[in-house]
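User: Show me sequence and structure for the first protein, then do the same for the second.

Assistant: Starting with the first protein.
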Amino acid sequence: MKPSFNTILKWSGFPVDEAKVIFKEALAADKTLWQTEKMWEIFKFHYQNNQFYRGFAGKEFADWSEIPVIRRKDLKGDYMLKTPAEVNTQKLYSSSTSGSSGDPLFFARDPLTHALVWENVRNLYEKAGVSLDDRQARMFGISKKQPDRAKARLKDRLSNRYRFDVFDLSDSALDLWVKQFRAQRFKYIYGYTNSLVVFAQYLIRRNQTLKSAAPLLKCCIITSEVCTANAAQTLRKGLGIPVFNEYGSSELGIMGFKESDCWQASDELLYLEVLDENDKLLPDGEIGRLTCTALFNRATPFIRYQLGDLAAIRRTADGHTQILEIMGSLNDLAILPSGRKVPGISFYFVAQSVVEASHNIREFLFRQTSDGFTFEYVSDTPVNDSDFRKIKKDIILYLKEDIKLSAIRTDELQRGKNGKFKHFIYSA
């Protein structure tokens, strides 16, 4: 019998039982008082024990808003040089961000923090009706080269999951996906929004749901990419199961989880703030730079840490945090001819009506170049003049100005190594 995920974590040296006790206490605590206590506790720990962070902060503070914001560039380099000496002697979990920018951040977690990150995942997935030990259909990319491909397949086998190749989203490939779902006892789907939307659209065209082919399926959990309300509706219709949206990062774990209106933040592990360009706190509901404090991580000082994402949050009367909106990365801002900057996700809405009406365009993205923008798409037939004019019209509607635009039909769109997909790429 295969050991459970928590058993494997224990065998690997992580304090699972201690994490369960602490997480349960955190769930029951008054969030405002508890978070205030924990955020000052982690700041004082790193200031007193972490030579790197003491030098970065400069002095000890009495006002939280005066503590300097730390960014990825500040933490780049050998993570061991940014870890307190007493923590270096522990069995650390180390990893890196995806490096989609070509420059990944390497970081560490102390054993308790790593166990807490996974306890949070277990708790959230349980709310969605699944377990970490359930059979997972994983919609991620996979390397075409050995031995990386073999390693990924082995890791998937040990983790009770099967990986679908998102680099091929042709109808013939999706036919094989359905056959896999019929043959295997999948309990839930985990993967990238765009690939799953293409799959759902394929199922809708065939007047079927995935649930009818795989009756044991309980839910779909999408990650990494922004999922609009229309995309979520398409997923629910095509898959025939509840859809949950997971927002997080490699270094912090799951930061928010939602099924409908907004993400419920992981207040048990993180303290969230939204700041303006001058690192000043913004009122609830205003879009700004999402800033997070990891309340337990004694290895890497994620204290008022800015990931580079734009978001809006609000605090409820009982102290819980809700993430109202996520606009994507600061690196995904498009620069219009007037010099005005807009979030790259705006381009999704520009093409949405045309894409949904045509039933021809499977995938698309906008790319900013030195002299304008290109609309790159994958489809069976070229976009006609009428649809192209509609896209141009919607650009003016959504972006409030005209731009130079060309259309390029292609067989495959740019993705990250893991199959991560963006609707806007800045390459000017």
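Switching to the second protein now.
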Amino acid sequence: MFAQFSALLYSLAKNEDYQLPVSDGETISDATYWIAQKSEMATVLSLYVFNAEKTNMQMLLEYEKNIRSDWESNAHNFGHLVGVFVIAGGDASMFDGVEFDEYYGQQIHISFWHINLETGEITVPKGQPKKLFNLREMISNAYKEMSNTTEETTFTEIKSRVEIPRSVAKHRWPIISIAVILINALILGFMYLEGYNENNIMVPVRFGALVSENVIYKGEWHRLFNAMFLHFNFGHFFSNAFGILIFGTRLERYLGRRMFCSVYIFSGLLGSVFTLIHSYYFQPHAISAGASGAVYGIVGAVFIYTRITKRSIEGIGWYIMLIYIGLGFVIGFATPGIGNFAHLGGLIGGILIGGVYAMACKK
């Protein structure tokens, strides 16, 4: 029973980007114990999985003492060091009479958990953290999967059924993304050839920059589309080109060219609509342009796709995208002249399209 549970938990830990020892799966399944590790922000979580039939409380306490001593000598290199001993099998009576250190956020702490492989009940002694990262859900999922298995299966069979595959590229070359960058660059070059400079702002207006009065009162709705290909200077262009190069190329290669086009156009248009509404009420004479709404749409699509499917794209996961989004809005609101409403509209557009696509991938 422990072998199946151990193999399932090992596979789930691998899918959740835990660092695991290089070892054969069957060895992990039958081992007395094995170790996995994961770090988020300043916390390092070490997971120790023990077979209750091959250990006892005295051995566990001695092992904890040795680990704690080693951690204390290296604590200056880390933030919080948290260990969780998961004892699988039997019942939680082995905790009876044992006094555990209460967890109150100290730098070093080792907690003891127990899971009954007959009932799936997880027992956490009083004063111990009951939630650390997604560990509790991961243990419960391993038990549920084991309960749905009618007969003993090998580690390889369990892994093939449980493991979530990494995203696989659909295209080798992101030709649409590169083409979009080149189109944006060419239009900016033509603007300068037409005499554009900071004192001649009418050039981008002639090229289709977004002006709310022209859209609302003159019916120039094409500006909602044209504006996502215009930029006011090379710095403005390069910042958006960088976003397309880093995230757009990955979206195109892994989610497809039609998906990239859909996200870029829909998010860019929604960003333009958000900008139009804001400008109409607060800055009716403002001139807006830029691909940032479309870029935030790409970011939003990658974020929601990796979050829902739990698949990374070339090492980029949802948490990295969330950090990028957060920093982008902090910088945007702290910097005058940034089109934050275009960013917001584009982000919403990308999340909508990316969410629908991700849910379809899960079916």
